[in-house]
Amino acid sequence: MSCEKQQLDIDELRLLVDDTECEALMFTDEQYFKMYRSFPNIYRMAAHIWMLKATRIQKDMGGVKSYSDGDEKYEMTALNDLYSYYVNMRNQMLELAEQFENECEGGYDGGSFVLSFKAPKIL
What we know:
It contains 4 helices and 2 strands; from the N terminus they run αααββα. It has a two-stranded antiparallel sheet with strand order 1-2. 47% of the residues lie in helices and 7% in strands. Strand 1 (66-69) and strand 2 (72-75) form a beta hairpin. The protein has one domain (10-104). Helix 3 (42-58) runs antiparallel to helix 4. The chain is mainly α. The model has no long low-confidence stretch (mean pLDDT 81).
């Protein structure tokens, strides 16, 4: 496995950080490329972006869970639940980053190896 910094794949990054809605992109491609300079790999950057998402909603904690308007009822995700989800995703990205970095340092690379056995002599 090559340990050199890989070129940023914007599509992969957007999938990792759930930023695929064209109408409401979190950052432009140019902003992502600029940010990537500060990170050793895509997974560290994704972890950072999940934390940015969490901090954006942290100030709004304790939002409305549900409300009714006449015959209509609206259920909303509690911001605290959403915050927990974002932090969990950040932690998952950090695990991927550590796995990637361990493989670069000579850890298990998912490759195969060949075993050779000598058949015993049987009388």
